[in-house]
Amino acid sequence: MAKLLLGPVLRHVDATSATVWVETDSACEVEVLGCRERTFQVGELHFALVVVTGLEPGSSLPYAVKLDEIPVWPEPDSEFPPSRIRTKPVESMLFGSCRAAKAVPGVLEADRVGPDALDAYALRMKDRPESQWPDALMLLGDQVYADQPTPRIQEWLDERRAGQEPRNEVVSFREYAELYHESWSDPEIRWLMSTVQTTMIFDDHDVRDDWNTSRVWREEMARKPWWRNRIRAGLASYWVYQHLGNLSPEELERNTLYRAVVKAGEDVQGLLEDFAEHADQEVDGRKPTRWSYRRDFGRIRLLVIDTRSGRILDGHRLMCSAEEFDWIEENTAGDIDHLLIGSSLPWLMPHAVSHLQSLNERAAGLPGWRGRWGEKLRQAADLEHWPAFRVSFHRLARLIHRLGTAPVAPATICVLSGDVHHSYAARADYDPPTKSHVLQLVCSPVHNDPPKVYRPLFRLSWAGPLASALRRLADRRGISPDPVQWRKVCGPYFGNSIATLRFAGRSARFRLETAREGEGLVEVAELDL
């Protein structure tokens, strides 16, 4: 008899359909609300994405999962309410990034990186009426940490590989899968993701720290004997666990890889890893693989950008290829009330950090020892955000200005980000001004609070005198003026946090809550956008 190993995870939901993702221990037929799908096999693992159709707009349906007609979800005697599919309009969305697995799954006390904000949210949510539940969840990267295993994963790797390199990192698809098992099997997270439709995008730790920072970094990694297997497994597992559920039922029908996988009738690990290897070559000028995607929630548009896999690292460094940016521009156009741009990496950063990144991009491109030191600093200090790709930084600024000054402009344009391990909101000021309110909203981490020694450095990065000094140096180095001015309107905030956006017509509010030991979630900021 087949067993449910992971999930269900509620992924794409619209007015009349939904997709539900599961992992099982053997081949079987998965059923949700009368809709069925056979599992596909990747190595020793089995997965299915069930497309549920025929739903009523504005409805809320409890659902169960059956494997070969045997009910396996919800679990008996669960303390959580039944999982539901809700097709109501999206009026609230959670977002955040950087969620490390708990050292002991199911234990709620704070661990080495503090209490888990998403855990705390789920525990509060289960006791509240459904009318107060969020409608969507956006996870903005570092859903797993492939190069920072918990003690349990490290022990499992040692037993599995008996000292093979790299000792402290995963390599194979099965090892990546274990990271997802550890993170997503948490009872609170499992219930939350079964009930709140969830979208995702990777950042570096989903594959490896500093992933695609530079051409030098790629060359260094390519010399490691295990790297080819690592990148094949990393992107293949991302496709299965995260990317697949970002697609609508119509996009799944058009996706040739997905159609080949579900029709194969045999192990597709080789097929997926060949695809992953091809996708990794985008930075080498191959035709891009699109990890970016668009979701429309009524008059709210979410456009999520791949800021990792599609970088161009030679010549004029680009955060994403020209072809990819053309797609981004095409998909931001439209008559909408709110535009949300999901970017795992912030666009508008602390001013000192922004100027430093642009200076470092220039320095790392110099010949000789100066370029080598610039590259060392880039990798050591993670100087790889939008300002470190100056051409792309300008193009995104121009796009947002054009959208914000259009005859039919959104009320708000918000860039949602994570990665930087502190949270803040910054408001963009253009000349000429936009009709849209333009903001950078950052929520990081959800569960990976760094040592408190870093907090003074984060605060210093917002200091005006330091920013002014670095801007003057940038002017002397011939770095272009910033295409937009911005000012911090709240933050920086520290600790494991989760952010909420609430929409009412053309109005929007941002709320940030931080998890504190013994207190649960504590509101630290609320802002009219």
CA(first)-CA(last) distance: 52 Å
What is the helix fraction of residues, given as a range? 25-40%
Q: Averaging pLDDT over every residue, what do you get?
A: 94
Strand order of the largest sheet: 14-15-16-17-19-18-20
Main β sheet profile: 7 strands, mixed
Report the uncertain regions. Answer: 106-110
In terms of quaternary structure, the protein is single chain
Strand content: 25-35%
Q: Number of DSSP helices? A: 15
Written overview of the protein:
The chain has 529 residues and is of the alpha+beta class. It is 31% helix and 25% strand. The model is unreliable at 106-110 (pLDDT under 50). The protein has a seven-stranded mixed beta sheet, covered by helices on one side. 49% of the residues are buried. The chain has helices at residues 117-126, 151-161, 173-184, 187-195, 215-222, 227-243, 249-254, 256-263, 269-280, 322-332, 351-364, 368-381, 390-404, 455-460, 464-476, and strands spanning 4-13, 18-24, 29-32, 35-38, 40-42, 45-52, 60-62, 65-67, 70-73, 84-86, 92-96, 136-139, 197-200, 293-297, 300-305, 338-343, 412-417, 423-429, 437-442, 485-493, 497-504, 507-516, 520-528. The longest helix is centred in the middle third of the chain and has 17 residues, at 227-243. It is globular and about 70 Å long.
